[in-house]
Amino acid sequence: MSPKRWVWGLAAASLLATAQVAWGVDPTQLSDPRLQARYESLTHELRCMQCQNESLADSPVDLAADLRHEVRDMLLAGKSDDEVRAWMAARYGDFILFRPRYSLRNAWLWGAPAALLLVGALVAWRVVRQRSALLAADPEPLEGDGQP
Amino acid sequence: MSRFLLPLGVFLLLAVVLGIGIWHAPEKGVVTSPLLGKPAPQFSLPDLNQPTHQVRSVDLKGRWYLFNVWGTWCVECRAEHDMLLRVQRAGLVPLIGLDWKDDASQARAWLTQLGNPYQAVAVDTSGRVAIDWGVYGAPETFLVNPRGIVVYKHVGALTDAVWSKEILPRVSAAPPGKS
Predict the structure, then answer these.
(1) Residues of B in contact with A89 (CB under 8 A)
(2) How many pairs of residues across A and B have Cβ atoms under 8 Å apart?
(3) Domain annotation covers residue B137
(4) N or C terminus: which one in chain A shows less Cβ crowding within 10 Å?
(5) What is the pLDDT of residues B73-103, one digit of tens each?
């Protein structure tokens, strides 16, 4: 075999190797491309309960495969995305949802950024007002200030 | 002096919030079951020892039972098996087994070899019933009251401590037949 063919062979082999990784976990293909897209986004936002930091789509364990089948069957049966999420959460709790839902228990978490932003804005407003008051009391410009 | 008060206050508030978080942190990896306080999922599955019979959840209503999920492939289940036999000998709560995604003949051999603590074992080959119960790793044990409500769930091997601190007080507070 010539060196050139070797290089080509090696390139093809490495391509095949990566291809296998990409297809290894979930080979599911639904005939309707829109269902397939919903299936893929749902399995990516549901947690594998056994591995806990992987999504259903990425996990090779048995339970994840079973739960992917449930997602597929529900989509084929015409269930909405929210119905699939609710079905999962009824069994495994909100923990299975990588995108948390709003509830009374976690309301303070959702509200905290807005509250902190408000506090920050108030502090900034007060500081700016104090500084401008200082400036007004001292009309003499600093040396070189504002002069070309 | 007063310029330190605000940061100090913020620090103390943060310390309290984080302290509460650490204090109440659940055991690592254990997920609180949304089934607690809700009716146990319905099922009807073949009986491991009498495959022509069905183990049905409706037949279990009216008394306490422990629903124990296991499999011969599960190492922790072997570790908890002696404890299950002790629970059976205590005679207070019957054990209903769920043989999860397992080979039935191997499961029967396991019970013959180690002893059978179960009143009945339901065979869940597909794993559908286990999913309805929110099972994510065997062994898991659910305590169901006579009204068919799940009142407690334990993930991992059953121990003397779990039995005496969590299960026994609940069962003896309401004796069998009443709720």
Answers:
(1) 34
(2) 37
(3) yes
(4) C
(5) 999 999 999 999 999 999 999 999 999 999 9
ipTM over 0.95: no
- Could you give the CA distance from residue B76 to residue B142 in angstroms, rounded to a whole number? 16
Q: Could you tell me if B100 lies within 8 Å of chain A, comparing CB atoms?
A: no
User: Tell me, what CATH number does B153's domain have?
Assistant: 3.40.30.10
pTM above 0.95, yes or no: no
Note whether B31 contacts A: Cβ–Cβ < 8 A. Answer: yes
CB contact under 8 A, B136 and A89: no
CA distances from B7 to A112, A115, B1, B2, B131 (A): 18, 17, 11, 10, 49
In a domain, B113, yes or no: yes
A7: which 2 tokens? 């290089």
Quick check: A148 pLDDT over 60? Answer: no
> In the sheet where B95-100 sits, what is the strand order?
B120-124, B95-100, B65-70, B140-144, B150-155
Fold of the CATH domain A27-101: Helicase, Ruva Protein; domain 3 (1.10.8)
Task: Examine residue B5 and state whether it is found in any structural domain, yes or no.
Answer: no
Q: Tell whether the model's pLDDT for residue B31 goes beyond 60.
A: yes
A119-139 average pLDDT score = 87
Determine, for residues A89 and B137 on separate chains, whether the beta-carbon distance falls below 8 Å. Answer: no
